[in-house]
Amino acid sequence: MPNSATPVTRDVSSTAAPSDAAGPAFARRPRTYFDLILAAYCVILVLSNIGATKGVEFGPIITDGGFFLFPLAYVLGDVVSEVYGFRAARKAIITSFVFGAFSSAVFWIVIILPPAEFYENQSAFEAVLGPVPLIVVGSLLGYLVGQLLNAYVMVKVKAKTKEKHLWARLIGSTMVGELVDTIIFCSIAAPIIGIDSWSGFLNYVIVGYVYKCLVEVLLMPVTYAVIGWIKRREPSYGTVRSDVETRA
To answer: What's this model's pTM, rounded to 2 decimal places?
Structure first.
């Protein structure tokens, strides 16, 4: 019988770290579509900020080069808010906000770097991407406030309507969020892209707002389909109650 004073040693290597014989160790990624939507959020915001540096004119209609892309961010916002709730939407909005600001900082650093002697496009590079940091200020402020309002209204209305009347949540939240977003962004971006009159500014705001809301309506069948598809494939959908998700 062993002496009780004798220390007993244990081989803890099997619990401290995976055995080399078992192969390399990795963490398991939860099954969710949220990360894919988040990536799309970031890409759309960065690309739309670059496109917004170009003024675009279709007859009497004045807009910017990001007009066809940015509304998709609100479609994705509706999907995230409807399926994952306000906290997840807020996470996606703030994350894409940070990456949008980061892209602006990158462009600014690249512009101020001394060009090589053989590089002949510095002026063109500055002309195209130089306004981006200023555009991003307007875009990010409008995006942050507008998207948070969009998500908040979407989830608040869902708390009352449950799974019914999705169309009302989509249209109502977009009308509120896009209005604030458009006013903030256009107020900052208009002089940067060359709009220097009140008539041009009002045109820019009204056309932008109506267009974005119209895109939401036209894409509603697609939004319905995407939301339904993700709901059916997210194993945790329905396990989190809306009253918890609407807490700030």
So the answer is: 0.74
